[in-house]
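Researcher: Please translate sequence to structure tokens.
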Amino acid sequence: MNVNQHSPHSDHDFFGLSAFSRGLYISGAWRPAAGEGRIEVIDPSTEAVIASVPDATVADAAAAVEAAASAAEGWREMPPRKRSEILRRCFELMVERSETLAGLISLENGKALRDARGEVAYAAEFFRWNAEEAVRISGEFGIAPAGGNRIVVDYQPIGICVLITPWNFPAAMATRKIAPALAAGCTVILKPASETPLTAYALAALYEEAGVPPGVVNVMSTSTPGPVIAAMLADPRVRKLSFTGSTGVGRTLLAEAAKNVISCSMELGGNAPFIVFDDADIDAAIEGLMVAKMRNAGEACTAANRIYVQSGIHDVFAEKFTRRMSALRVGPGVDPDTECGPMITRKAVEKIERLVADAISRGARALCGGRTLAGRPGFFYPPTVLVDVPPASDMGCEEIFGPVAPLYRFETEAEVIAAANATEYGLAAYIYTRDIGRGMRVASKVEAGMIALNRGLVSDPAAPFGGVKQSGLGREGGQHHGIAEFMEAKYIATSF
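Model: Translation complete:
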């Protein structure tokens, strides 16, 4: 494992942070929070304060809803082609500013610059995809089976949407919600994670430049999300909640939204199995696992969390995989040579330490890593490979959300399917085998909303993203799924 100690942009001037932290973005204007509070933003690589942003209050939440309501009719009635062109311009500006956005993401999130660049490209694609879909929203027309009337179905914008995004993909999780909502004709209020608000504000300025009218997109950071979100959901003009985050928080938000019967989309936690059969191409499977496990240093809901390797290749696989993990360069996210950046907070590192310690206490062995990096600032944890991990360990039941890869040996197809499904989660799963029949058979039996077959990357703006069981409700992205989440079907019965 190689460790980089210094960042080439340690003074942070390169990123122009003051431009991204000037105020809440409400009704097309930058304004301080009603209580004048501020939230400090920490660089996870150095633990230094790099900026501060306004700390929104309930009063600010009311102002954001009012702004979204005032802009709603104009945006809803705008011709789809014009909305489409504005979304397309958002895509073009994100591509033009990709290096600045990637650097900003790496700085406040800590992820390796190469991962940040990939995120910006992925995030921008939601605007291009939804720009194309915005002009293809159509209704339905038919004859009632009894022949007495015609059935007309019109799809209309659902209304004001509250969007809540996590810290691990501060650009992509925002655009994955904002782009389809705008394509559908909705106005939105985005509440980004307090750990990574700078990207959200930078994108708000970009939307304005692209021609998004005032009040259509509002952005507000807060350190008290509970009362602020509750205040917005209590306003009868708010008709949609879209949340990406933990299952625990998702349950709380669902209960709050139920008070006013608000439509909810929930992309929640995961515990993804990564299954490698004896007949798999070992090298290809390892390459896929490096993506599925180490994208964003493992801080992803789709990350491979439980790695099942059939006994015939288990030992060879573990040896080769350990060599790859050991060679990763650990360092500040903004360093171009970094392959594994820091975790988001000290608390995140402490959780990983607890999971690893529990597994080792139950008999697991660390083939590499396994101990916190000492003697340096930042929230770092080394790439780690564990074998002989007991399935009943905490690691087998909880999201790791870090660069730790536990390997489990299995014998039969039926055994691994049962193990893969032995979780309350069902977001993503990965399968490697040369037998396409086996791959499709196992994919049909694994309880997950998304399956990557002989691939380490499952996400695509053109495909429906979401899970089953405790991993969520609804879908984001896809040919029509993503926009449909932000629309209501209106049935009209008529005769002529």
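Researcher: Any highlights?
Model: Residues 113-133 form the longest helix (21 residues).
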